[in-house]
């Protein structure tokens, strides 16, 4: 393996391949970088697979005392809050990436003596612990952080408000608590969410005007007629804007860079986007085409390592890992990769808008001919360009770089008109949490259903 620019072997950043391979196994093991931290389970002999599986279950059992201690601490905090009149706010995270979707809100609320903040995580002993590179994400050891047994039990008891940047899991909703959904994508709903995954919430913290406009019809079509829409903003974007201000780089600020640095960030393929996602059908062609002229960083969606996308992902890595112009980023924190790139290639992934709005850099959208409504269909050229034929891709990248300044100006105008409370979405929620807890409706909020005043 070649040495990278920093003198270390290889250029795969944070690669942590999966231990399990649910389906669509590759016909033979693919080549992985030498610095891979784990051996993929599907590359092991059957006997070793069984031993590894038994070992994981023994390890999980040994951790039971930790869960009991956590549970006792949580109950102590809960009863203390009930006796002192504190409001109990639970943040439930299904994946490590969901931590970003609520920004600094938990920390801000913890500084207010009126609230007890509980964090509940799903992934501590699951396969996702390995897949999502958990060791590189936030590790919260406070007594208000609950994992598995402790989190699931206490999560259903006594909470006043549940903040959930995850959808489609009503069994996790606390009994009697108000439930508010924080969006996990800056994009519009169509082609991103399956039909009923947004059902069951009392409040929706809308990232931008598009969510406020689309949600009423979306919910009605999927058998939900109630809910309150809050013009809140997108904490994940605000967080990335702050990071971009600290580390942001671009071709314009790096005049010595002879060629643009491209990042390919395809979305995870699932039933809602099969007709528009690029990875399974065009991923290899995209990378091979770009490598003819440019350097490229491949950043798959984390779920692509544990889904039917995985054979394609590992085949691409194995085929191109020795190319000095090819690199892979599977780290938990992608801000450095985004900051050091000049243009992104993607399909209908919401990361296109986070990337463009936070780092003020153009996006090239791969268009497979799918149709739909929303900003990822109608407003793509406001933040970049559209590519319908892979053979035209490098030419489109050249056009983007030549028109860089005007595209950046368009990105800023679109972002500033679309996103609510830009840079202040965390504070907006904290300032209005009492309105949620006491059923007040401030100006600008929209109530659906019987209280909608004739709308």
Q: How would you describe what is shown here?
A:
With 455 residues, the chain is of the alpha/beta class. The protein has two domains: 64-235 and 422-451, Rossmann fold (3-Layer(aba) Sandwich); 239-418, Rossmann fold (3-Layer(aba) Sandwich), CATH 3.40.50.2000. Helix content is 36%, strand content 14%.
In short:
With 455 residues, this protein is an alpha/beta fold.
Number of domains: 2
> Helix/strand/pairing class, anyone?
alpha/beta
> Might you state the CATH topology name of the largest domain?
Rossmann fold
Total number of strands: 15
Based on the model shown, name its key terms.
455 residues, alpha/beta, Rossmann fold, eight-stranded mixed beta sheet, seven-stranded parallel beta sheet, 36% helix, globular
